[in-house]
Amino acid sequence: MFAFAWILLLAASTVVDVVDEVYQIPANEWRYVELGLNQRPALVHAHFQVESGPPQVRLALMRREDLERLRGGLPHGVIEETDPAASGSFTPHIRGPGDYVVVVDNPADAPAAVRLRIWLDFGVRPVQEVTQLSPRRQLVVILLSFATFFGIVTWSARRLLRGIRR
Fold first, then answer.
1. Measured between alpha carbons, how far is 44 from 83 in angstroms, rounded to an integer?
2. The sheet that has 80-81: what strands, in order across it?
3. DSSP string, 46-74
4. What is the spatial distance between Cα 35 and Cα 120, in angstroms, rounded to a whole number?
5. Short-list 71, 81, 78, 14, CA closest to 46
6. Which is higher by pLDDT, 53 or 95?
7. Is the pTM value of this prediction over 0.90?
8. Sign of torsion, CA 63 69 70 72?
9. What is the CA radius of gyration of the chain?
């Protein structure tokens, strides 16, 4: 019975470790880790620490399409990125399903050994979206509504009065 309870507890866990290992990154090169987020929204926790080599490593989260552009030397998009440093982390909230990658970039002229840890947290509550206009926009909407209403009433009254006079 105790084993069954333990299995249920593990199955209910919302945190998934993706990677926790040391990567050898040659000078002026980059490596990547794939994140297949085809389920539900998640927080992507990514942390790196340079264990040896120059302290100029960068971490970036991007879509798989952007990785292909990076590979081809074309302009590419980035969802989240750290500054070049000896360590760093980010925690963006990925809302849509898709193929994402975390890129570890070593722009220095010497190789680096980088410990990379990435984990996903699926237990994040959805972020509340804005459901109300600002007071200034509310006023604009009200004024436009009144102007439209009174414009239609005036136009209709003129048409009715013209019809009655004939």
1. 17
2. 29-37, 98-106, 58-63, 80-81
3. EEEEEEES-S-BEEEEEEHHHHHHHHTT-
4. 9
5. 81
6. 53
7. no
8. positive
9. 27
